[in-house]
Amino acid sequence: MSEALLRIGELAARAGVSIRTVDYYTTLGLISPAQRTASNYRLYSPADVDRIHLVQRLEVHGVPLEEITAALSTRSGDVAMILSQIDTDLQTLQTAADGAAPEMQGLLAVIATRVHSLITIALQIPPDTMLP
Asked: What is the pTM of this model?
């Protein structure tokens, strides 16, 4: 049995955000209503709570909302291209770290930690969070 759809205020309360945030995320295409009522109220899936939390975690790590929107709307066929780009970027980071001056090692360690955190978050993304 599926869970009941949520009105915007219910979604905001469950996600711990304001209604304005839900409106903004909807405008950006980060979330989208599952359907509308006869009175034209937006109804959201309970899974959108997790999606909002994911967006917030990515924002905390400095990923711009526009990039999050693009990534979450990427079709599964584009994943190989994204993984290839990540691999290239990681190789570039490793090359920079290998040849960096000692005073830059700390900065590169911070960057590597950030990359690791983002990859960890990406691996936690359920496959059903992509936009239809």
From this structure: 0.65
